[in-house]
């Protein structure tokens, strides 16, 4: 190749001073841009973190519309729960292994219906053994009775012969002794037969314990054991032995228990008409009445428990449901029954503790997602532990007893009930 061509190629490969400066500048700009991006991302993360802030734990309450008779007839309101007077956790009376579990939650059962069965091999063997002992005792009794009959015949024969001087007086006395001995053996063996029969009955009872039946008609609300598990009427510890098979609730025995503040107890008396509203169905009013005031107080809450009867049973009413009860004035109730009507007061009912002061105004904190929002309201009349407020929608979720550090937009978490 000619020499001038080689020099031209070398000149093309040589990097000039200006080109090196351009490449160094590009690298510096790239590093500066990356550093700025990292700083901006860190600032944004900090802003998000501090904006979110820590979560505040709060209690939840639901605003409910007042009943139509509230303004005219309700003299007190209290909250509580639906309870069952007849509820039983069914268990076995003996320790054994489950061979069948015939229940599921939500199933209706009748009194005496079989719920489960235990392994009955040992119990059946005990019954067979007891029946064999009974048969042996009965056979021995027949033998003693036959011997007694023979002894009686011998005695009568000797009594006839002793008058003819054909047998001695001693032989006659011996015959009498044999009769008396035979009678004693027969009576003793009869007692043995009774004992063997009682043993059979006891073995049959133990066999019956292997079949678990419903104590009354109701609905299964909990299934606590599975086939193959060991159950026992007493706790064996260790977590391997079940003490119950399932829980049965008599839905016809459902009633309501509410806590009434001591300060308002004088407004409550047995047979007083009431109205109940379930938290799950705030627009459904259930007629009810007071059964009894339980004669003991809770010193920690300063309340007294009151039992409320449900006058209209409904399958929607379930155990442990939250409920609000309005205690009615009987005179106003009679007026309403004869044709009088009254409009419900404006507003909704919330716990009095849900209303707090912020900036000199009465406010409540509503719950939306994981945030609390401050809302100004106009408080009205008190109804026991509840208070009527305007400016809030029925069914709204509010914070019960808002803490002092709760502000508008604060992040919250609702306590588990």
Fill in the keyword field for this structure:
417 residues, conserved putative lor/sdh protein from methanococcus maripaludis s2 fold, Elongation Factor Tu (Ef-tu), domain 3, OB fold (Dihydrolipoamide Acetyltransferase, E2P), six-stranded mixed β-sheet, 6 helices
Strand content: 25-35%
Question: Total domains, how many?
Answer: 4
Distance between the termini: 94 Å
CATH architecture of the largest domain: Beta Barrel
Biggest sheet record: 6 strands, mixed
Query: CATH superfamily of the largest domain, called what?
Result: Efflux pump adaptor protein, beta barrel domain
Radius of gyration: 44 Å
* CATH class categorisation of the largest domain: Mainly Beta
What level of helicity do the residues show? 25-40%
Order of helices and strands: HHEHEEEEEHHEEEEEEEEEEHEEEEEEEE
Low-confidence stretches: 68-72, 335-341
Here the CATH topology of the largest domain equals: Elongation Factor Tu (Ef-tu), domain 3
Structure classification: alpha+beta
- Please give the order of strands in the largest beta sheet: 18-19-20-24-1-23
Number of β-strand runs: 24
Shape: elongated
What does this protein look like?
The structure is a single chain. The protein is α+β, with helices and mostly antiparallel strands and 417 residues long. It has four domains: 56-62 and 347-414, conserved putative lor/sdh protein from methanococcus maripaludis s2 fold (Beta Barrel), CATH 2.40.420; 70-84 and 251-337, Elongation Factor Tu (Ef-tu), domain 3; 87-119 and 211-249, RNA polymerase II/Efflux pump adaptor protein, barrel-sandwich hybrid domain (OB fold (Dihydrolipoamide Acetyltransferase, E2P)); 121-208. Helix content is 34%, strand content 33%. The protein has six helices and 24 strands. The chain has helices at residues 3-13, 17-52, 70-73, 121-162, 169-208, 330-337, and strands at 56-62, 74-84, 87-90, 96-101, 108-109, 114-118, 211-213, 218-223, 230-231, 241-242, 246-249, 254-261, 273-278, 285-298, 303-310, 322-328, 348-351, 356-358, 361-368, 371-376, 378-383, 386-390, 397-400, 410-414. Strands 18-19-20-24-1-23 form a six-stranded mixed sheet, with no helix packed on it. Strand 19 (361-368) and strand 20 (371-376) form a beta hairpin. Helix 4 runs antiparallel to helix 5. The chain is elongated. 22% of the residues are buried. The model is unreliable at 68-72 and 335-341 (pLDDT under 50).
